[in-house]
Amino acid sequence: MSVVEPQVDSRDPAPAALDVRDLEVTFHRRGRDLPVLKGVTLRIAPGEAYGLVGESGCGKTTLAMAALRYLASNGTVDAGQVLVEGRDVSTLSDEALRKWRGEAVAMVYQDPAAALSPAMRIGDQVAEVFRYHEGLSKAEALKRARESLRRVALPDPDATLRRYPFELSGGQQQRVVIAMALAVNPRLLVLDEPTTGLDATVEAEILDLIEELRGRIHAAILLITHNLGLVARLCERVGVLYAGRVVEEGPAREIFTDPRHPYTMGLLRCVPRFGMNKTDAALQTIPGTLPALGEPLEGCVYSARCPMAKPVCIRREPDLYAWPGDGGPRGRAEAEAMPPEPAAFSPHHANPVGEAARHARCYFSAEVAQMPHLTPVLATSLEARGATAGAVLEIDDLVRTFRDGRRKLTAVSDVSLNLRRGETFGLVGESGSGKTTLAKCVTGLIAPDSGTVTFEGKRLRATAGRRSQDALRAIQMVFQNPDSTLNPAWSTRAILTRAVRKLGSGGSVRAKVDKLSADVRVEPRFLIQKPSDLSGGQKQRIAIARAFAGDPTLVVCDEPASALDVSVQASILNLLVELQTNEQVSYVFISHDLAVVRYISDRIGVMYLAELIEVGSAEEVFNPPHHPYTEALLSSIPTLDFGDRRERIALRGTMPSLSEPPSGCRFHTRCHRTLGDICVEQEPPVQEAAPGHTYKCHIPPHELLAAQATAEPAAPIKA
Amino acid sequence: MARLIGRRLLLMVPTLILVSILVFALAEVLPGNLGRFILGPYATQSAVDQLNHNLGMDKPIYTRYVEWAGHFVTGHWGTSYQYTTSVFPLVMRALGNSLLLAGFALVIIVPTSILVGVYAGLRRDSILDRAITISSLSMTVIPEFVSGVILIVVFAVTLHWLPVQAMPPQGSPFIDRFYYLILPAIPLMLLELGYIARMARVGTVQVLNMPYVRTAVLKGLPRRRVIFGHVLRNALVPTVTVIGSQIGWLIGGLVVVETLFNYPGIGNYMVNAALNHDLPLLEACVLVVAVLYMLSNLIADIVVAFLNPRIRMGG
Questions:
Q1: pTM
Q2: What is the mean pLDDT of residues A685-710?
Q3: Beta-carbon count within 10 A of A236 CB
Q4: Considering only alpha carbons, which residue of chain B is nearest residue A184?
Q5: Containing domain of residue B105, as a range?
């Protein structure tokens, strides 16, 4: 992994690729003015990669849209300037703006499927850029489009040119978007969550591509993401945005290893580090929630949530002070000497940006390293959780197929697993691997074609409609999106009351609802609200409370925290751990986020193309020897560890179709450790790496261990 | 795609059978007796019975249905009781007249309403958009017999700008027919304009908010390219579906306008056939309208598939 050094320093006369000065953007909604950006200043040198991080609602995307002069119609730039290569964007004429977009700046979006025009062939979409920016004929433009697709390593560019977006996989779609953005060599590339929503291995491919292209295109990059690992990997500098303010800025490495603003520290502490488990340490959370747009803030924008906040923080807002330096203490002394002015924002900087390498908007930067830890409940060991030898849940040879026209898709193929009381079984695998189908068979939302689900020693009926009331109560589910699971017309109290009436075991319904909401830390005043008035985290807490209404034995959690911001995700994970400790409930936990699964699970199963290819304790699965697919998955996660020199394993090709799974070992078409014919012809045996740790592969454990223990993979294959 | 069309065409068969049975059953429960109807109140009962016997009206309904259906599918559509002429040429001529009226209205209305709707969508929340939305909505809620009567009174009776009749005198050149159709076509246009324009507006507004339109703008494409290349194609999908169902509806819904203007179209014949127990004519009219309705929906679906490659290739 090669980090390109910024090619220009502050003495260079070349104007910045992006120079945002004291930018203030306000949205106008229902007669109210809601400030989104409150005096943001940042500079990106030509060729530099700058990461902008912060939770959703901080103003990241608004900043990017303001830079491209594409604010929503209810948004206005009230003050400040955006200069791109020295030109003020607001002064461009319509035609100049059009030329400038595409030629000077280009953007890559979060959801590539939505970013591509659905009814237009890929070739035409890419060729458009050449036709309207370079005035090429249709035929010439298509030829150039072909080159562009080749540049982003799309296999078979000729065929891709003729395809429609829906015929491509998510990774291929994002490559097309990148090809389009880079078509006419822009000097500034804005990447807005470019890998969010993509599978881990696809994300790794896209990151490799961006990194590789950086060496050739010399475009400056503005990377907007909530994924700190991504920034650590791609960017030289980072800006941390909170409530429309830059609260910290500096070189990525220094910011992530030695943060000097409590918010940055909070963000870093609430992400589970790679390899961390709930029994090792509880996740830190950031108390409270992001202020709503337009909510009046006093003093420092972060003071309401800051564990280090002092009265002076509310008295006056701190500036961005250079670090290291005495700006913070001096600013504090000034703030204490001056009359309080909590509502005023300070768009001015104690140090002009660019003079010092690091800035933090805090009076107490020197003390951030000693920021107090919150102490949420630490998970007890599996034994202490009352885990007994007997299985709560046993799944035997479960098969589920779907029909797609005339084709038969096997979504779950001969899966067997078991789960003990109080245990968490993590299920990982890429989209389409069968995780959710398996979960739905357990909860009875769909019936398996064959195979059995045994719960507390009794065989369960296939569908929920035919299961006993007791079985329904004991097996509950928490979904990814609480918006679609909670009835929007009901108050949260009504939602919980109904759940208690349906599932509860008698006693006072009201008392039970109050206890549930207290257990999930939702204050009573929120119970009269409807789901739409709650934050995403609160909604998910209510969804969890609903699942716990009947004191369940098993809760299936399908990506329960994936749609939430990192700080909220941490608190939801802590809540699940705490509920498990108190109630001895078992979880089946589905997630594509491997660090999260590693954190919360006692045992982990890895699925690939409908098969469970590896099962073992969380620690065993995450360490060699493990299945080559698991190995590839793990290698693909971007981490915050700057000493991380793991070789990323790029899988070949794309996920095969479920209707025609490959012969022999299903993974052989993409495997980097394939042995040859045996993998193609024979179904691999289940090998035991350790008691309770099994995987499906032809390579025996000791050989796998020997191969995986070395830093270099056996046969590194670039896609 | 070909399979999809074939399947849809095949599906028309049971639908038509069902429709024909329904019409037969409904005609049966209509009050009155066919023989008495034809011969008038002063005919003797025996003459009425004789005529009913000759017409086959004394046979059970299913026998009559099977006989009629057998003839119908072999091209013998029977004789109209009231006009005592062969039904087939009668219906075809009426159909021609109706298609001319509906076609005339549609040729003007479809491009106009799409233009107006898309324009309103592109200028969302502007004064023009509001004006278009409100006026098109108010046009839709005025029934065609109200607007028709008002138009006749104002333009034909008072101002004498346009003829009251919908058909030119015998021997006039064909082109004159359009002049005579202007007045009857306007109520139809008013009705459709509001509906189609609002669909086009909503489609445009929705597509303008799509991320791929943002991509197109930020790619630096000229505005007309964004609109014609990326917005319209997707925005018009719901509109096309609506137009398809409206064409069928329009032809059936001509009943009111044709009666009002006494225009010899299929709607007019259908009303008369129903009023006069003219079952062969009624069946033929209803089935022809049903076929048109289904065909226009099918064509709309084909156009939608053309606009949306996902449907085209998935079919």
A1: 0.83
A2: 90
A3: 20
A4: B219
A5: 77-312
Instruction: Quote the percentage of chain A above a pLDDT of 70.
Output: 92
Give dist(CA A507, CA A423) in Å, integer: 28
Range list of β-strands (E), chain B: none
- Could you give the strand order of the β-sheet that contains A75-84, starting from the edge strand earlier in sequence? A32-44, A18-29, A75-84, A87-88
Residue from the list A68, A117, A132 with its beta carbon closest to the beta carbon of B230: A117
Close Cβ partners of A98 (under 8 Å, ≥ 6 residues apart) = B220, B221, B222
**Cα–Cα distance list, A182 to A101, A214, A719 (Å):** 12, 11, 20
Confidence band, pLDDT 50/70/90 cuts, at residue A5: very low
Taking residues B259-267, report their average pLDDT.
88
Q: Which of residues 188-247 of B touch A (CB under 8 A)?
A: 210-212, 214-222, 225, 229-230, 233-234
d(CA A236, CA A6): 7
Cα four-point dihedral sign B271, B275, B280, B282 = positive
Q: Å from A92 to nearest chain B CA?
A: 13
Question: What beta strand segments (E) does A544-685 contain?
Answer: 554-558, 586-590, 603-608, 611-617
Q: Which of A101, A114, A167 sits opposite B219 (nearest CB)?
A: A101
- Report the largest interatomic distance among the alpha carbons of chain B, rounded to a whole angstrom: 86
Cβ distance of A117 and B212 shorter than 8 Å: yes
Mind giving me the DSSP string for A314-340?
HHS----EEESSSHHHHHHHHHHHSPP
Which phi and psi angles does A468 have, rounded to 5°?
-70, 155
- CB proximity B312 to A under 8 Å: no
Question: Which two structure tokens, joined as six digits, stand for A393?
Answer: 């849940």
- The order of strands in the sheet holding A686-690 is A475-478, A554-558, A586-590, A424-428, A603-608, A611-617, A693-696, A686-690
Chain B interface mutation, best of A61, A105, A117, highest count of B Cβ atoms under 10 Å: A117
Q: What is the CATH number of the domain that holds B287?
A: 1.10.3720.10
- According to DSSP, residue A349 is labeled -
Q: Which residues in chain A touch residue B313, judged by CB atoms under 8 angstroms apart?
A: 164, 167
Give the integer Cα–Cα distance in Å for A186 and A203: 23
pLDDT digits (tens, 9 = 90+) for B89-120: 899 999 999 888 888 888 888 999 999 999 99
Q: Residue B15 falls within a domain, yes or no? A: no
Asked if residue B62 is part of any domain, the answer here is no
Using a CB–CB cutoff of 8 Å, tell me whether A570 touches chain B. no
User: What's the confidence (pLDDT) of residue A387?
Assistant: 61
Number of domains in chain B: 1
Residues A505 and A525 sit within 8 Å (Cβ to Cβ): no
A133/B225 Cα distance (integer angstroms): 13
Q: For A113, which residue in chain B has the nearest alpha carbon?
A: B212
Query: Hey, CA dihedral for B283, B285, B288, B291, is it positive or negative?
Result: negative
Q: Which residue has the tokens 């000065």?
A: A21
First-to-final CA distance of chain B? 5
Is B65 contained in some domain? no
Has residue B227 been placed in a domain?
yes
Task: Provide ipTM, 2 decimals.
Answer: 0.81
Residue A694: name the closest of A634, A635, A611, A637 by CA: A611
Whose CA is closest to A374, among A271, A279, A269, A302?
A269
Q: Tell me, yes or no, if B279 comes closer than 8 A to chain A by beta carbon.
A: no
Asked if B216's CB is within 8 angstroms of A132's CB, the reply is: no
* Weakest-pLDDT range from A71-85, A152-166, A379-393: A379-393
Looking at residue A352, its pLDDT comes to 52
Q: Does residue A9 have a pLDDT over 70?
A: no
Instruction: Kindly report the average pLDDT of chain A as a whole number.
Output: 86
In Å, how far is A93's CA from the nearest CA of chain B?
13
Interface residue B96 vs chain A (CB under 8 A)? no
Distances (CA, A) of A214 to A182, A217, A218, A683: 11, 5, 6, 42
The beta-carbon neighbor of A132 closest among B214, B221, B307 is B221
